[in-house]
Design brief:
Number of domains: 2
Structural class: alpha+beta
Radius of gyration: 17 Å
Helix content: 55-70%
Number of strands: 4
Distance between the termini: 36 Å
CATH topology of the largest domain: Glutathione S-transferase Yfyf (Class Pi), Chain A, domain 2
CATH architecture of the largest domain: Up-down Bundle
Bound molecules: glutathione
Largest sheet: 4 strands, mixed
Oligomer: single chain
Shape: globular
Strand order of the largest sheet: 2-1-3-4
CATH class of the largest domain: Mainly Alpha
Length: about 220
């Protein structure tokens, strides 16, 4: 059994990995690291991950970053958890393509809402960044909505880490107050996800970590 240290920030994209870890049933050491408190930018953290980001999974002392890579490692290491479609290389690759798009396509667009100042330094232009991000996000959410059409419970037949990843984005969209009324399949998927035991364990741990950090502030 590998020793696993898991660095996450409550509510951040690391929740996709957090859910997957819970789905494996593997024991791990949670290391809450709050991005908004600059805890991913300390010299100690940057020594661990020079990108200054969560998630990080330290596996027997070896550092692995990036949701896509960590999810792939978890799938290989805990095959019984069936984190990606098994027994069909193409189906597995399709699910991985979806995961890669979550990281490279969906996440960066939503990231513009959290830090519009990183995308423009023109005066009074933050709202323009958000307006453009709203449009780009709607196009991404429409793709997810279509992928969930036809009465599907999950994106790729059985539950996969792609489902865990899109859960993070719907959560962000509702917290940001974005209009999600055009995505009924996605909304139902979000409700379905909330009923999964692994999701409940991960979100409860993140809520506890957030409360502890707020208390310490
Ligand atoms: N491509 C990375 C993105 C990681 C990322 O952007 N994480 C954000 C949280 S959602 C972060 O740690 N931000 C802290 C910062 O930039 O200071 C992945 O998928 O793991």
């Amino acid at each position: 059994m590998a020793n696993l240290d898991f660095y996450f920030s409550p509510g951040a994209c690391s929740l996709a990995t957090h859910i997957a870890l819970e789905e494996t049933g593997a024991a791990f050491n949670p290391k809450p690291t709050y991005t908004r408190k600059g805890q991913t930018r300390t010299p100690e953290y940057l020594a661990l991950n020079p990108k200054g980001k969560v998630p990080v999974l330290v596996i027997d002392g070896k550092v692995l970053t990036e949701n896509t890579a960590i999810l792939t490692w978890l799938n290989r290491t805990y095959p019984n958890a069936k984190l990606l479609p098994a027994g069909d290389a193409l189906k597995e690759a399709e699910a991985l393509a979806f995961v890669a798009w979550c990281a490279s396509g969906v996440h960066p667009v939503l990231g513009r809402f959290f830090g519009p100042q990183n995308f423009t330094d023109l005066p009074d232009s933050a709202d323009n960044v958000k307006t453009l991000a709203t449009k780009a996000n709607a196009a991404n959410f429409a793709i997810i909505e279509k992928a969930l059409s036809g009465g599907k419970d999950w994106l790729f037949g059985d539950w996969s880490v792609a489902d865990g990843y899109i859960f993070v984005f719907f959560n962000w969209a509702t917290k940001l107050g974005l209009d999600v009324s055009a995505y009924p399949n996605y909304a139902k998927h979000f409700e379905r996800m909330q009923k999964r035991a692994a999701v409940q364990r991960a979100t409860a741990r993140e809520a506890e970590a957030l409360a502890a950090m707020d208390k310490a502030a």
